[in-house]
Amino acid sequence: MTEHYDPRNKTLFLSQGVASVASVASVAIAAHELGHAMQDAEGYFPLRFRAALVPIVNIGSNLGWILIMIGLFLHFTQLAWLGVLVFAGGAVFALATLPVELNASARAKQLLVQTGIIRTDEERQGVNTVLNAAALTYVAGLVTAILQLLYYVSIVGGRRR
After folding, report:
1. Rounded Cα distance, 126 and 145, in Å
2. Which helix (H) or strand (E) holds 105?
């Protein structure tokens, strides 16, 4: 994704397509990312919590499945379960992401109306459509992470039978 806010260096990144196109979708996306900057400025706890998870999840998503496979291959179930536990960080991260993204979208909607950037019901509907569709991608990501975790649990748990 090219559109994002980086709290490490307080920078908002927008693609050329979003930054230079005057559309309801572009305004909604830019305002959503500004919502993340607002979260950072006020020390919004869910954003800080999610940011703290990043290094753990980066390690866990790469190491978890390796531990699972080695544990299964060597018939060392405890190692496989450790892999499942480490891999679970991805599902926790996906869960922690939901309130951050939903809040940024709510802030964006409020900001666009309060500043008068969005004036008509049609524009408001367009913003809602774009931001709600974006939110659904995070819901899908959470469902995917949970299903993948359950898949690994079923593999490791099935080894005892």
Report:
1. 29
2. helix 89-114
Would you put residue 116 in left (φ > 0), alpha (ψ -120 to 50) or beta? left
Two tokens at 23?
């559309």
> Mean pLDDT for the chain?
93
Nearest to 153 by CA among 59, 70, 66, 85: 85
Which of 3, 33, 122, 123 does the annotation list as catalytic? 33
Give the model confidence (pLDDT) of 98-138 as tens digits: 999 999 999 999 999 999 999 999 999 999 999 999 999 99
User: Which of 150-155's residues contact partners 24+ apart within 8 Å by CB, and which partners?
Assistant: 152/64, 152/65, 152/68, 152/83, 152/84, 152/87, 153/84, 155/68, 155/72
Gyration radius of the chain over CA positions: 20
- What's the predicted TM-score (pTM) here? 0.87
Give the integer Cα–Cα distance in Å for 99 and 44: 11
Is 3 a residue of the active site?
Answer: no
Domain borders along the chain are 4-158
Query: What's the pLDDT at 105?
Result: 96
Single-letter amino acid code for the residue at 100:
V
